[in-house]
Amino acid sequence: MDIRIGNGYDVHALAPGLPMYLGGVQIPSEIGFVAHSDGDVAIHALCDAILGALALGDIGHLFPDSDPAYKGIDSKILLGKVVALASKKGWKLGNADITIALQAPKLAPHIGLMRSTLASVIGCSPDRVSVKATTTERLGFVGRGEGCEVWATAVLVKTE
Ligand code: MG
């Protein structure tokens, strides 16, 4: 069996009055992400993990933030494009594991919807998509509520 593994990492700054999208879900919050796209830092890390597994670069390269076409774009569209690219090259997602570090709000109530939303964009079963959330015990920029940090790992399996 031919398999590949990739990792992805992304950070976005937080500011008052902006929407917060994580894992394709809008999270009720007074603060949200500063970004050119919708700021879905979890999807960005996942896209980079998939691209990394196939040595296809990163989303900043594929979808440059200097391109007005991506202004405010729903990151689920970017994930769909990345999955389509992998599929065209003969690869599908085996599984993905995402860890989100955010001080507040609490993400636990939204994890199930994030997993099913991501799985539906990818076209896989939700048991192949893990989303975990942690605080950083008030340490560092995450702990001070200045930003959100996400790590993602993806395993891709050759389809033919
Ligand atoms: Mg990003």
Measured distance between first and last alpha carbons: 10 Å
Secondary-structure-based class equals: alpha+beta
What number of domains?
Answer: 1
What about the largest sheet? 5 strands, mixed
Helical proportion?
A: 25-40%
Please provide the count of β strands.
Answer: 7
Query: Any idea what the shape is?
Result: globular
In terms of quaternary structure, the protein is single chain
Based on CA atoms alone, the radius of gyration comes out at 15 Å
Mean pLDDT, nearest integer?
96
Describe this structure in words.
It is a single chain. With 160 residues, the chain is an alpha+beta fold. The chain has a single domain, classed as 2-C-methyl-D-erythritol 2,4-cyclodiphosphate synthase (60s Ribosomal Protein L30, Chain: A, 2-Layer Sandwich), CATH 3.30.1330. It has 5 helices and 7 strands. The protein has a 5-stranded mixed sheet. The protein has a two-stranded antiparallel ribbon with strand order 2-3. Strand 5 (91-101), helix 4 and strand 6 form a beta-alpha-beta unit. Helix 1 (41-53) runs parallel beside helix 3. The longest helix has 14 residues, at 75-88. The chain is globular and about 45 Å long. Bound molecules: magnesium ion (MG). Magnesium ion binds next to strand 1 and helix 1. The site of magnesium ion has 4 residues, from strand 1 and helix 1.
